[in-house]
Structure formats: structure tokens, C-alpha cells
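dumping this here so i dont lose it
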């Protein structure tokens, strides 16, 4: 029997999933690693730890598959978190850790680009909003504040490109990942000259752009032996996790939106050509040259729920561990006892700055409306609702660019929670469909891999792999509450922006707490 492996390189873990060619999961393995927040606004990872997690997860999933002699793994294809940056010297020695999308230290240079008008010029060609998440801004930060590293740097890659370089000694980047760098012209599919000029880079310091269907063979014998696969097993570059999430839930028809909430979150719609928002609020990233994903990402998704669990419900977390139950399930059960709207308590989930819809790296989280009668249960309900309210704000901006959203497909870690799915349906006042297959990124990566290998002629054929889906209908009893609270949430997010910079600067000057996340 023939199989494919889909690899999902995430922010805090790497997952490898073994599928048959019909999309059924045979085995999976996930390996975690820390996100280092040693300083305010820092969010880094160790590339070696991620590489080892990849090798370990591939090894585990191959063994767990218990393949027979006539079974064959036809290929390994990748989904990857976007916007990461690693600097290397001339001998390919890393000079930095992985500077992730969540790193906000380049905020000053993002603001300078926006204020000068140059940022809008670059955005109009690259489709990547001006924000510290993007390697464009990170490079300006390195150039101005890490000059020793910048001067020694001869190559710049992201995490997936680092992995392919270690396995195959290549220097390539698929156009999907490239389209999220802020350095790549999405109209001529090459590195943008203006972006290169302001960062001081030359083309030879960046990888060669390739299609997501690019294949590498002939990996190191050492790694092939450890993993347990033939040396000539095809490795397919695949694409960014956002675009692949749309494919993975079959949200690739006009007006069909994919909402993903994992560590972070996003809402996205596929179009047949790049579309730019005149206000610079949405991104446009490639799935491939014929499919473009327009949407908005949020920094603050499941990681905010984790913050609430760890800091507001430590005792319950310990109790759940003792009872052998999932601590998040316990918290959602607590939140479900509180009425929609948390009795007028709102939470803005900007614990790590924010990308869409406000694109403000200085943004900070806050509870609003807190009274004597509010409890921790209200607070956790408000946290969950705040994440959805924020996604809804992005949806309003997205509709101005691509038109009305006709339906919603939901995926990501939050899709495990019936409460969150119902919140999404109620706040959006639309039906929400959750495909049975929750490993959407890894599955989509294998479909790209199958097309690369000539096993399918179009990626739209994923529709036959998704199995049954569950649909959540909006609850009319909650409409009035959410309709009344949503405008307050939106107005507050704008009014508080005037003080975000002041409080953020205070924290940068006075707060020195090591926040390494395990």
C-alpha cells in the first residue's frame, strides 16, 4: 500500500502525520519545543531543537505505521509557520536563533516604514502588511540594532528552508513562504528590488524562489537511516501553514472562509489572483501561482487561552492532571456555565501585540467592564469570546476586499471545543462547518505532494478526502447580546490604541522577566 507523510512545522511543535492516499490518518507524532521570550517582545526558537523534533516525529510516525515490505512512503510534504528568519554566516553557521512571527522587537522600524509612506509602497507589491512579524522589518532591526550579526550575515532563511538545507544542502524557498516575507513581489514572483534596497540585501543572500511542488531527493544517509526511509524518498517543499489550512478544509472556492485558531489565528479566503487592500489591513499570500489566499492573521489565539489557564486556573490545572482529564476541557466547561457575553465583561486578547485587524505591535490585553459580581468563570468566558470578537473584526475588513463571506470552515486546535465553535457561529451569525479531519495542514501538504508527484492533477481533489463534517448553527438567543457587545469591543480596540504605545514603552523599560514557554 502507498502512503504520504504530511509535516506541519508549527510555532511550538512539529507534527508528522502518515496518511494513505485517500487521506485517512494511519499514525501521527508530535514533538514540542520551547518558545523563548527572554526579553520583552522577543519570541525565538532554537533551529536545532526544531530539526531534532522533525527527525524524532518522522521516526516515530514511520515506526507507528508498522509498514510491511510491500508498503511504500511515496513522499514527505511540508506545511510551515510563516515569517521566520535565521541569519547565517558565509559557512552556513547560524548567527541567530529562529526569529519567529511573534517577535515584536522590530516595531520601531515597522512604524517608520508606515509613517514614511514607503511601507504602503512595498505592501502594494508584496501583499505583506508592514508589521514586526515580517522578515522585512526584522532585517531592518538587525541592520540597525544588531550590526555585528547583520554584517556577518551572508544568507537568510526561514525554518523550513533551514531544514531542507540540512537535509539536502539546498538554498530554496517556496513562493508561498516567500510571499509572507515582505520582500517578495507577488506580481512578478521574484524578490522585490525596493525591499532589497531598504534592507541592504542582494538577491544572492536570499533563497531561490521555487514552486510549492518542488521536489528534493537524496537526503543524508545518516538521517534516512534514523528515520527509517529510503535515501531517495521525495521531499516536497509544500507551502505556508495559512494557505494550506484553507486547502485542508476545502475552503478554496470564492466566498468560503477558513477560520483557523491554533497558537495564533487567522481568517482567509482564496482568490485566483492577488488582491491588495488599499488600507493595508489584509495579507495576500500564495498557495501556488494560481491560488492566492487573502486574509488577516491574529497573534493571539490559543496561546491566550493557555495564559488564562496557567494564571487564573492553576489549581484546576493541577486537579485536571491528577484526574487524568484535559485542563482545557475543564475550563471550557466552567466557561459554558456563564451566559453569552460574560455578563458584560469584555477581554481584548492582545497579549503579544496584534497583527490584523489593528496591526499594532504595542497593543496590550485588557479586561473591560469588570465588576464585583464577575468571577474567574466570567473571565475565562470573556477570554474565549474576545478571541472570536477579534477574528470577527478581521472578517469585516476582509469583506471590504473580497466581498461577502458566504460560509465558514473552521480548523485548528480550537475546533476541538464545541463551546468555541458555537461562539464562532453566534458572533458571526453564520453556520460553521468543522470537517472531521482536524489535521488539515498536514493533509493539505500531502495533497500538494501528490500533485508534485503526478498522483493527482489538481489540489481541489482534496474535497474527496475530508469525510463527514459537523455544522454548528447560530443560536438566535445569543444574537442580541453579541450584536450589542461587538460594537463596544471594536470601539474600545480603537480608543485604547492611543495609550498602547505608552504602556508598551513603560514595559520595555521596566519589565525584565524571562518568559520561556515550554
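and the seq i came up w/
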Amino acid at each position: 500500500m502507498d502512503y504520504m507523510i504530511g509535516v506541519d512545522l508549527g510555532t511550538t511543535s512539529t507534527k508528522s502525520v502518515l496518511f494513505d492516499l485517500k487521506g485517512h490518518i494511519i499514525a501521527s507524532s508530535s514533538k514540542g519545543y520551547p518558545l523563548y521570550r527572554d526579553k520583552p517582545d522577543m519570541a525565538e526558537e532554537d533551529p536545532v531543537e526544531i530539526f531534532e523534533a522533525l527527525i524524532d516525529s518522522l521516526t516515530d510516525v514511520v515506526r507507528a505505521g508498522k509498514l510491511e515490505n510491500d508498503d511504500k512512503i511515496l513522499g514527505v510534504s511540508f506545511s510551515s509557520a510563516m515569517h521566520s528568519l535565521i541569519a547565517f554566516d558565509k559557512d552556513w553557521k547560524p548567527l541567530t536563533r529562529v526569529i519567529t512571527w511573534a517577535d515584536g522587537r522590530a516595531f520601531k522600524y515597522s512604524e517608520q516604514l508606515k509613517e514614511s509612506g514607503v511601507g504602503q509602497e512595498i505592501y502594494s507589491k508584496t501583499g505583506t502588511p508592514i508589521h514586526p512579524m515580517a522578515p522585512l522589518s526584522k532585517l531592518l532591526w538587525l541592520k540597525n540594532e544588531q550590526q555585528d550579526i547583520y554584517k556577518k550575515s551572508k544568507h537568510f532563511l526561514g525554518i523550513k528552508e533551514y531544514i531542507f538545507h540540512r537535509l539536502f544542502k539546498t538554498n530554496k524557498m517556496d513562493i508561498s513562504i516567500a510571499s509572507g516575507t515582505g520582500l517578495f513581489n507577488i506580481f512578478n514572483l521574484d524578490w522585490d528590488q525596493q525591499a532589497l534596497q531598504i534592507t541592504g540585501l542582494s538577491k544572492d543572500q536570499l533563497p531561490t524562489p521555487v514552486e510549492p511542488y518542488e521536489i528534493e531527493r537524496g537526503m543524508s544517509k545518516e538521517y534516512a537511516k534514523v528515520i527509517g526511509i529510503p535515501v531517495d524518498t521525495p521531499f516536497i517543499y509544500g507551502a505556508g501553514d495559512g494557505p494550506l489550512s484553507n486547502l485542508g478544509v476545502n475552503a478554496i472556492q470564492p466566498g468560503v472562509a477558513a477560520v483557523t485558531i491554533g497558537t495564533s489565528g487567522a481568517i482567509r479566503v482564496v482568490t485566483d489572483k492577488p488582491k491588495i487592500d488599499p488600507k493595508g489591513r489584509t495579507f495576500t499570500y500564495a498557495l501556488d501561482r494560481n491560488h492566492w489566499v487573502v486574509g488577516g492573521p491574529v497573534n493571539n489565539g490559543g496561546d491566550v487561552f493557555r495564559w488564562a489557564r496557567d494564571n487564573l486556573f492553576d489549581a484546576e490545572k493541577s486537579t485536571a492532571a491528577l484526574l487524568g482529564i484535559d485542563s482545557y476541557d475543564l475550563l471550557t466547561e466552567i466557561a459554558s456555565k456563564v451566559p453569552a457575553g460574560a455578563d458584560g465583561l469584555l477581554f481584548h486578547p492582545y497579549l503579544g501585540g496584534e497583527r490584523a485587524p489593528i496591526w499594532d505591535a504595542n497593543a496590550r490585553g485588557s479586561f473591560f467592564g469588570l465588576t464585583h459580581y464577575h468571577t474567574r468563570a466570567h473571565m475565562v468566558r470573556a477570554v474565549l469570546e474576545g478571541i472570536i470578537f477579534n477574528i470577527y473584526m478581521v472578517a469585516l475588513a476582509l469583506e471590504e476586499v473580497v466581498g461577502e463571506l458566504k460560509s465558514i470552515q473552521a480548523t485548528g486546535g480550537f475546533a476541538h471545543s464545541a463551546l468555541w465553535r458555537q461562539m464562532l457561529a453566534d458572533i458571526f451569525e453564520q453556520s460553521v462547518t468543522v470537517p472531521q479531519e482536524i489535521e488539515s495542514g498536514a493533509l493539505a501538504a500531502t495533497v500538494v505532494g501528490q500533485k508534485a508527484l503526478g498522483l493527482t492533477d489538481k489540489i481541489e481533489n482534496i474535497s474527496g478526502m475530508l469525510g463527514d463534517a459537523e455544522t454548528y448553527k447560530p443560536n438566535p438567543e445569543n444574537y442580541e447580546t453579541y450584536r450589542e457587545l461587538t460594537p463596544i469591543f471594536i470601539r474600545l480596540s480603537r480608543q485604547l490604541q492611543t495609550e498602547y504605545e505608552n504602556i508598551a514603552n513603560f514595559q520595555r523599560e521596566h519589565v525584565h522577566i524571562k518568559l520561556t514557554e515550554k
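The longest strand covers residues 72-80.
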